[in-house]
Fold RNA-binding protein pno1.
Amino acid sequence: MAESTQMEVETATQTAPLPAKPTFKPLKAHEMSDGKVQFRKISVPPNRYSPLKKAWLDIYTPIYDQMKVDIRMNLKARKVELKTRADTPDISNLQKSADFVHAFMLGFDIPDAISLLRMDELYVESFEIKDVKTLKGEHLSRAIGRLSGKGGKTKFAIENSTKTRIVIADTRIHILGAFTNIKVARSSLCSLIMGSPAGKVYSKLRSVSARLNE
């Protein structure tokens, strides 16, 4: 009797329809922030003020039209100010827009920086030459020269192999790309700073980029 009762319970369990999965509508930006307007401010360095004036429309259009985020230049504070709107589809659009503007301020070209708006897995990493090795005077100048190469040849080779973009601004280096690719590019740049010849770095890059492609 007990066995038949157990079998009946098991049969009922198997035939019972599963409850429908709940469907949640995506939250809008003003709902995620409790209806509060979110702000971001990005400082404009003195050397990027003129390029910003020239490229303002190229920066303004994708942020305002595509990301649905308000943007303005505060001339008194010398900062670019961003603000969410009622029709901003996603709160993350504000941070993406801020990252895009910040990348431009670091020296990246707009076609490269705009990829931060379109792809989620891209980052910007910055470090200084002194973080790797303390160099002064001519030794520092030679290290910067090794990073760029003749006519920027070394920098372009690292960028193309690792699918990244690199900006060398005096002693600061900025890398834009995916996490793994940034790691490879930074390793190559550090080797050059430490004094490795370009040929050795190229051969290592070839083997690493082949593994990345696989």
